[in-house]
Amino acid sequence: MPQQTDEVIFSHEFSFMEKWLVFLATFITACSFLSVVVVLWKKHKGRGMDIVLVKISALCFLVYRASIAFHLTADRARDYVFLPVDSWHKLANVFMLIEYCSLIIYLARISKELQGYVFALGICIIIVLQEKDSFSYQYALVPLIFNNLVLICSSALYDKPGSFNPSMVLYGAFWYMVSCVGFLLTFSEKLDYYFLFDDLFEVSTAFSMFYSWQSFIVSEEADKPADTMSLKDVPFVLFEMFRESRDAIIAWRNDVRELV
Predict the structure, then answer these.
(1) Which of 212, 177, 184, 210 is closest to 198 using CA atoms?
(2) d(CA 240, CA 121)
(3) pLDDT in tens, 140-158
(4) Which of 2, 34, 137, 180 could hold 10 in an S-S bridge, CB 3.0 to 4.6 Å?
(5) What is the reported pTM?
């Protein structure tokens, strides 16, 4: 994991070809979070906040990684991408950790009266610790530990309906474990010189969230499979989402013209 300095975040300089290869890998990694956006749009119509959090986190990650790939100093980063490089890193962490907190609250199935308190407490912990140091792993682990404790305590204290989709839970857990391995390997500058393990961590996190958001989607009929999505469905649903968004914009424009 690159360390924060006064001038640059990443001390190694890439060649011209390496810069663009790293940027291409970064772009592909950021696009993996479209799978989360798609499943939220298709299966959770009331989760607009989560969609925005995932999008803005992926955007911050893309700007951060592009900045260090092209070796921007703090001053140049302000000129080209508005904020210092470490600020983009901090924002990417904050938005993604908040989204993960929202996911855990969904999985925990705690009462609506408690959801606001738990979510607000989680956000406070995330912001304070990331403001302390967004590059130290312990300040990212504490919010994750808090989230997992919420999930464990909720499972122990509250009765849950038998509505888990075992396959989605299994896939989500598998990709979560892969993300943990990738996360640990990102702290070796020698092993992660080209951010491959960081990419592994980000992509597996996206896939874990993709399946975890479908943990409670089951079929009410015994002989009917659950109406869930797989990763191969993402491009088709993404196209459907763009088409419906376009139609909605056209309809809104026509309504405005009629009013005028």
Answers:
(1) 184
(2) 36
(3) 889 888 888 888 887 766 6
(4) 2
(5) 0.86
